Each structure stands twice: as structure tokens, then as C-alpha cells.
């Protein structure tokens, strides 16, 4: 039974790592150049940073914060993916155990919480970079985005 679980876990982890390796990463997007990056999705899901009128210095600072976030959360995201694969393996057992499943869900939740905290810290640092006018524009963009999202639901 343990050997079967171990083999299933190994297969799931290998398969998920192959899929993960094929995803385009933000680092690849960052190599395309500073100006092109303005048109790509950035932290906070702001798709058109041109509307904020960022300076080159602000854009560089934001890119550095994003890169730091990626570096800081890479290990946590890898752990999260492994824990999710382990959870799937637990569910696949012939007799799934409640305690093991709930423990794994808690571990997954904790890792997601770590990532969310790091993302919030990054966004707060980005917010510090903005001028008062840019902060006002950002709030308008976010308000429009939330309004559009509400309309779609």
C-alpha cells in the first residue's frame, strides 16, 4: 500500500513538474524590455500601466519588486504544487483517511496564505512608489475593473 502511494506520488509530481515547466514565466516576459512590459499584466492585475503615466524609474522599481516577489515565492509555489499532488494521491487511495486529507489541506492553505501575504507586501511597496495622482488613477482603474467584474457575474 505504501509503495503504491509512493509510486503514485512520484508519478503525479513528475507529471505536474513537466506541465509547470511548460508554462510561460514572468521572468521570460521581463526580458522583452521595459516598454513592452508596460503593456503586459503586472502586479495587481493592472493591464494598462500606461494609464498611470509611470516614469522609467518607477517602472524599473516595479519590475524589481515583481522579480523579488517571484524569487521569494518560487520555493513556496513549488511546495504548494507538491502538496496539491500529495492531496490528489491521498484522495486516490482506496480508503482515504480524513485526518491525512485535512492535514494536507491545512498545509496547502498555509502555503497559499504565505503567497498571499507576500503578494500583499509587494503591492503595498508598489503603492509607495506611486505619486498621489497615480494613486488616484489606480483607484479609478480598480473601481472600473471591479465594476466590470460585478457586471459579468
Word description of this protein:
Mean pLDDT is 78; it is low at 19-46. The relative contact order is 0.12. The protein is built from 6 helices and no strands. α1 packs antiparallel against α4 (56-92) and α4 packs antiparallel against α5 (98-129). It is mostly helical and 153 residues long.
Task: Provide a quick synopsis of the model.
The protein is mainly alpha-helical. It has six helices and no strands.
Please name the defining characteristics of this protein.
153 residues, mainly alpha, elongated
Number of helical regions: 6
Assembly state here? single chain
Low-confidence stretches: 19-46
Major sheet description: none
Question: Hey, roughly how much beta strand do the residues contain?
Answer: under 5%
Distance between the termini: 45 Å
Total beta strand runs: 0
User: SS-based structural class?
Assistant: mainly alpha
Helix content: over 70%
List SSEs in N-to-C order: HHHHHH
Question: Radius of gyration, Cα only, in angstroms?
Answer: 20 Å
What is the residue-averaged pLDDT?
Answer: 78
The backbone outline, from C-alpha atoms, is: elongated
Lay out the secondary structure.
Elements: H1 2-21, H2 26-30, H3 34-37, H4 56-92, H5 98-129, H6 132-152
Helix pairs in contact: 1-4, 4-5
Amino acid at each position: 500500500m505504501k509503495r503504491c502511494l509512493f509510486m503514485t506520488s512520484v508519478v503525479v509530481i513528475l507529471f505536474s513538474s513537466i506541465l509547470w515547466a511548460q508554462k510561460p514565466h514572468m521572468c521570460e516576459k521581463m526580458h522583452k524590455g521595459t516598454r513592452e512590459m508596460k503593456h503586459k499584466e503586472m502586479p495587481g492585475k493592472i493591464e494598462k500601466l500606461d494609464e498611470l503615466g509611470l516614469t522609467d524609474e518607477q517602472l524599473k522599481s516595479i519590475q524589481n519588486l515583481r522579480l523579488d516577489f517571484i524569487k521569494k515565492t518560487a520555493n513556496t509555489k513549488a511546495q504548494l504544487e507538491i502538496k496539491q499532488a500529495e492531496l490528489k494521491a491521498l484522495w486516490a487511495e482506496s480508503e482515504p483517511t480524513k485526518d491525512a486529507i485535512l492535514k494536507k489541506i491545512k498545509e496547502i492553505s498555509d502555503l497559499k496564505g504565505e503567497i498571499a501575504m507576500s503578494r500583499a507586501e509587494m503591492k503595498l511597496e508598489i503603492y509607495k512608489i506611486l505619486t498621489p495622482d497615480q494613486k488616484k488613477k489606480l483607484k479609478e482603474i480598480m473601481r472600473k475593473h471591479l465594476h466590470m467584474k460585478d457586471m459579468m457575474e
